Amino acid sequence: MRALTWHGKHDVRVDTVDDPEILNPRDAIIRITSTAICGSDLHLYDGYIPTMQAGDILGHEFMGEVVETGPGSTLQKGQRVVVPFTIACGSCYHCGKHQYSACDNGNPADNQDIGQEMYGQPMSGLFGYSHLTGGYAGGQAEYVRVPFSDVGPIVVPDGLDDDEVLFLSDILPTGWQAAENADIEPGDTVAVWGCGPVGLFAVQSAFLMGAHRVIAIDHFPHRLELAKKFRC
Amino acid sequence: MTMATDDAPPTTSKLNEERASAIAAVTLPKGDDLIGRAVTINRPRDELFAYWRDFSNLPSFMDNVERIDILSATTSHWVVKAPAGRTVEWDAKITEEKAGELIAWTSGEGSDVPNSGRIEFRDAGARGTIVTATIAYDPPAGMVGKVIAKLFQREPAMQARRDLRRFKQLMETGEVATAAWTQKQRDEEKA
């Protein structure tokens, strides 16, 4: 398959690599139909994230069609799914409390050492985001292997286009969480500093949570234009 | 020595010296012949004990163990990977067993790598079971010994920690997590 691979600072290439295979019972293989570039992919591109290795496949915001499933997957061939970037097992203590980013098992045993050394505790696995988070191949590729596919992927109902659901993989929940952390109550006035994609999702989330008025703050006129379209 | 002023783990300390020594304490082998590690597993104690007690299960999460043959209720034969495609072997005998609580073993005479260890299981309330492994080993002298020592001293504490993590993954999720995306890659990782 073709895949976007990292080779060093400011050096990413579209390479031909092996197609992914089902390796564990709960795996699924997804044929990618849409993928986004995240702001945090720039940190990889600019060489700020340690533990990247030449040939690592990038991409943690993606969706596609299920083409193959392991015997423990709950997905079915032909289903369209959005895949959240966190690789969580669904069975550990933290997953039981919906603390998926603290999953004990999504990160392979060998790569947990790095997080343990840096932070005192390993973190969950992520797609396409360095060996600190597992060294998993990402979704800026034609196909991807999705571990624990019975936990993360969201099956997309018919009638919704990729563009309407793709951002469930990362950036919409990121903006939503920012609004959630502000404990917004009906009738509140809310200010959002920074109106890039995350900020604009925070704006829309604030309205959904009942904010009466949202003030958008940014120094790029075109971002403020977009914010106005969302009633800011 | 500078004292920490908050309750964060010392491995995350803002004080360089304190952080470095805490990380070393976690990652470096303590001496070269005795290691102990613990992990908390979100499964009942009896279930974990039963899986471990069947030694033929151990290679499913111990990547450096090629196979274990069961010889009798208390004895088994271990074949363990060594560098350059070689293997080292020994017979192990269970020396102490308390159902659901602990298993202790020691290698028999003439072992390539004399070793002994114990695995203990303790209730951890809502978090499941705390599993503690203690392993002692004695690499022999000489050329063969050097090769074997390299295998075991490669970072024995790290090997034990990884084995316990894989045990946890297998018991909690039914599989051992891997970032490989082809079978060939996974085989190379385990080799």
TrEMBL record, chain B:
What InterPro entries has UniProt attached to this entry? COQ10_START, ORF3, START-like_dom_sf
> Where does the record place the Coenzyme Q-binding protein COQ10 START domain?
41-160
Which Pfam families does the record cross-reference, listed alphabetically? Polyketide_cyc
Assigned protein family: Belongs to the ribosome association toxin RatA family.
Cite the PANTHER family for this sequence: POLYKETIDE CYCLASE/DEHYDRASE AND LIPID TRANSPORT SUPERFAMILY PROTEIN (PTHR33824), POLYKETIDE CYCLASE_DEHYDRASE AND LIPID TRANSPORT SUPERFAMILY PROTEIN (PTHR33824:SF7)
State the protein's name.
Answer: SRPBCC family protein
Lineage start:
Bacteria, Pseudomonadati, Pseudomonadota, Alphaproteobacteria, Sphingomonadales
